[in-house]
Amino acid sequence: MVLTQRSHVRRPTLEDVARQSGVSRSTVSRVINGEARVRAEVVDRVRDVIAELGYVPNRAARQLVTHRTGAVAVVAAQPENRLFIDPFFDLLLRGVRRELALHGAQAVLLFVEEPDDYARVADYLGGGHVDGAILFSLRPGDRLGEIIDRLGLPAVFGGRPLPRGGEPVRAGQAFVDGDNRGGARQAVQHLVSLGRRRIATVAGPYDQENSAVDRLAGYRDVLRDTGSPDLVERADYTRQGGADAMAALLHRRPDLDAVFVASDLMASGALQTLREHGRRVPEDVAVVGFDDLTSIAETTDPPLTTVHQDAEEMGRLMARLLLEREGAPDSASDGTPDSTLDRATDVSRDVPSVIVPTRLVRRASA
Fold first, then answer.
1. What angle do CA 78, 310, 91 make, to 5 degrees?
2. What is the pTM of this model?
3. Which string of DSSP letters, residue by residue, matches 261-294?
């Protein structure tokens, strides 16, 4: 048997890139780290050489110097099987992953489903495995916020952070959220403009999530003087939940002529129930959803009028805010200064929060 020796090809080094680019080693390092003190033409030249040589930065050596792991925990306080049936979260996670990848970072997805999971997640977050955390789907009194505070880990919340034990949210907690209350107002005002007078709502689990609280508040803002408690039904942000809630509303108020549903997934279930009860949409009952998930809104019968919020962009903004809190270079991922982070309302360096605007998208259901 003849043994052949494996040939080893020398990996290109930082010095190789510097030599071929005609710049110093420190300049190459600044380009790799995304620092702003390098002229654009130099950045382009160095990046071309990096691509030509196939240079890959030595992340292990960089971690020894910077004490950074290049990993970010994405923590969801939701059962895993429920999370992935909702297209909204899929888009949100896609935005997070894409933005982190632009900065050479990796997302590590963690789930909190049972009480014992809190200790496991706390040990992982405190074990030096990640540089920060993005947290979403937290409920009132959720211990994850307390764990983050205790560890002093940079973090960004998806949605407004929820109060713990009746205490106000701690100033300075970074979060990204859609304009849930304003979007709900747009939806209900549209139904009113169509001449609808008995407008119901399928609300989300507002004892669990602030988005549901805000969307219900927006509904009530418009119908303050005309709304009725028996036109409100709560569901769990699932298709079946929306279907069951719509059936309950029709049983109580068979005269209703419109419904604002707090998510597209629930709205698809509500449309099914209306069909089963012989109600024409929009002739008998007009329907408006929330999220503008095109995989749902454009395929329902009829296509769904809904409130648009850009879930993927919200995920990107969460990642960008976290990178800023970690001290990463401040650069727009699309290379332009007019990013959503700059355009969104309620942005502050002292309280780094972003409220992303929403807008009504009209289709055939209302």
1. 45
2. 0.73
3. ESSHHHHHHHHHHHHHTT--TTTT-EEEEEE--H
